Structure to design on (77 residues):
């Protein structure tokens, strides 16, 4: 139906992230017949919560142009 994954990684610290812990969201995909049912939103909510638990101060998501439409809808950048 829908899938998403996340990698937690550490980079050199910088002013906005003194611990250097960040997350990268990868491979978000929903089968076309299941789109529009809020599955990605729930996955993103879970990933966001898990990244906070693990101390990530920044979450990266690189998206296709189609996904960018939804990201703007959810006020993500």
């Amino acid at each position: 139906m829908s899938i998403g994954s996340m990698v937690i990684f550490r980079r050199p610290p910088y002013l906005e992230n003194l611990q250097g812990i960040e997350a990268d969201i990868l491979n978000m995909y929903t089968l076309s017949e299941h789109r529009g049912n809020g599955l990605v939103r729930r996955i993103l909510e879970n990933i966001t919560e898990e990244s906070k638990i693990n101390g990530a101060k920044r979450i990266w998501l690189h998206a296709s142009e189609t996904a960018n439409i939804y990201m703007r809808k959810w006020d993500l950048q």
Observations:
- The chain has a mean pLDDT of 88.
- The longest helix spans residues 39-53.
- The beta strands are 2-10, 21-30, 58-61.
- The CA atoms of residues 1 and 31 lie 5 Å apart.
